[in-house]
Write a structure and sequence with these properties.
Distance between the termini: 62 Å
Bound molecules: dinuclear copper ion
Strand content: 15-25%
Shape: elongated
Number of helices: 9
Strand order of the largest sheet: 3-2-1-5-8
Radius of gyration: 28 Å
Structural class: alpha+beta
Oligomer: single chain
Length: about 350
């Protein structure tokens, strides 16, 4: 019996270690922590959390010290079998304790309400940037309706601007959240949900799907790239006038591979490739990550992905025929040339 238990324990440890090793290649653009807030929502959450911890500490420390004092002061001494003085029936104490408890709980329940109202109030006006999100197994489609841009997985936003996210899902329930910038919300098939985020400082903020959505849920990553308004405008311009002509012979060969192998599922704006099943790949070469944020965007990683997407991301829905190394090199050159 002991041996079986030990074996199970070892198997469990091995599974956890394998999981951690598997998660190692998953890119993180920085901590996904509420403890380093970078936007007005996360600051409000951080304040609520700090207040909670202070309140709990202020109650917990005196209560614990008092209990320890009582345990020592009124411990049973040798030879003393008498009952201590019975005080439990004093209604003043009982009402006092109950009221203190109720007041404490009510304060704890009520004090985060202003923060919640702050999240729920969607900002309006012309200073707001509207983005539409569609969750897919296992990546995010991003649409900027006013700018006419469709992209994936890397949400560019200008700092100091409230961004209203209107989201839904193409398959199962996903959940969007970037802890350093705000709360999170579900993307539900057949429904539209909304939330808003804002970044105060330029930077890259890591996000993640927060709803178990399938085998590669943990690899459904996401990053928000907050830029100065001028940089953001430049990014919008570059997306509206993308570079799609292949540079060099290798990339030109890659374009042919793309037309026959990838174009049915992927779009590159301004080319005949208009597939709508997978992510829009316009400007692919300017992205920092690939595969839904799982790998850094390097030619080696793109080759790795193209040779077997499911090895990188188990359960990925991308279907690709077996390509020769030459075809992979050409396709990689074409994709990396899309700016
Ligand atoms: Cu999408 Cu979890």
């Amino acid at each position: 019996m002991q041996r079986v238990r030990f074996k199970r324990f070892v198997a469990l440890l091995a599974a956890v270690a394998a999981g951690l090793a598997g998660a190692a290649p998953v890119l993180a653009a920085g901590p996904q922590s509420l403890l380093s807030p970078a936007g007005p929502q996360s600051h409000a959450l951080y304040e609520a959390l700090t207040w909670d911890i202070l309140f709990i500490t202020v109650v917990w420390i005196p209560v614990t010290l008092f209990v320890v004092y009582l345990l020592i002061r009124f411990r049973r001494r040798p030879g003393d079998d008498s009952l201590p003085r019975q005080v439990g029936e004093d209604p003043r104490w009982e009402i006092g304790w109950t009221l203190a408890l109720i007041v404490g709980l009510v304060i704890m329940v009520l004090h985060p309400l202003p923060a919640e109202a702050f999240f729920d109030r969607l900002p309006r006006g012309d200073k707001v940037l509207n983005v539409e999100l569609v969750g897919h197994q296992y990546w995010w489609e991003l649409k900027y309706p006013e700018q006419g841009i469709v992209t994936a997985n890397e949400l560019h936003i200008p700092v100091g601007t409230p961004v209203v996210l209107k989201m839904t899902s193409a398959d199962v329930i996903h959940s969007f959240g970037v802890p350093r910038l705000g709360g999170k919300n579900d993307a539900i098939p057949g429904r539209v949900t909304r939330m808003w985020i804002q970044a105060d400082e330029p930077g890259v903020y890591q996000g993640q799907c927060y709803q178990l959505c399938g085998a590669s849920h943990a690899r459904m990553l996401f990053r928000v790239i907050a830029q100065t308004p001028a940089e953001f405008e430049a990014w919008v311009k570059s997306r509206q006038h993308p570079v799609t002509t292949p540079q060099g012979d290798l990339a030109a060969k890659g374009e042919q591979v793309f037309r026959t192998t990838c174009a049915a599922c992927h779009t590159v704006d301004g080319t005949p490739a208009q597939g709508k099943i997978g992510p829009n790949l316009t400007g692919f070469g300017t992205r920092t990550s690939i595969g839904g944020g799982v790998l850094g965007n390097t030619p080696e990683n793109v080759g790795r992905w193209l040779s077997n997407p499911q090895a990188v991301k188990p359960g990925a829905l991308m279907v690709i025929p077996k390509l020769s190394q030459d075809q992979i090199n050409a396709l990689t050159a074409y994709l990396e040339g899309l700016k």
